[in-house]
Amino acid sequence: MTITVILAIGTRRGQAETWIQRLPERFPALDIRTIGKHAIDNIATGAKESDAAVFVIDTPYADIEEFRRDAESILTQGAEIFLEYFPAEPLIVLIQNDQRSGQLLGAEELREDLRKLQEPGQYEQALDQAEAEQARSRAMATV
User: Could you give phi then psi for residue 14, rounded to 5 degrees?
Assistant: First the structure.
């Protein structure tokens, strides 16, 4: 069974976070499991323990280095990755959403997310590089 992992790219308290939360209910026929970033190293184990073949990470990525590191970990486990990109939103909107969330991040954290958010092509390129490296590693292992 192929494990599919969906990574949202965007800021916390923005459209990406809302999309992640609503994805399982939008597609009830698919067993989409939402998991935390802390569980990324155990996706393969989690897939064996449940019927889920589709996982979505519960927090969007803005930091490309964190994205690259987690994508490499996911690919190492034999999973397939799909991206969904959400462009930057005005800081005031993020702050308002943050205040309604009940778990405040604060303006500085949200400003930092906006600062780190890259264009979609940067994340696609990082994923392509990670996939190419994974393919090379698999090829070397069979030699």
Answer: -115, -165
Residue with tokens 């923005």: 14
| Per-residue CA distances from 25 to 33, 34, 64, 94, 129 (Å) | 11, 11, 28, 23, 32
Structure tokens, 121: 């092509």
Helix (H, G, I), strand (E, B) or coil at 140: helix
In angstroms, the CA 80 to CA 71 distance is 9
pTM score, two decimals? 0.90
pLDDT, tens digit only, all 143 positions of the chain: 688 999 999 999 999 999 999 999 999 888 899 999 999 998 877 777 666 679 999 999 999 999 999 999 999 998 999 999 999 999 999 999 999 999 999 999 999 999 999 999 999 999 999 999 998 988 888 76
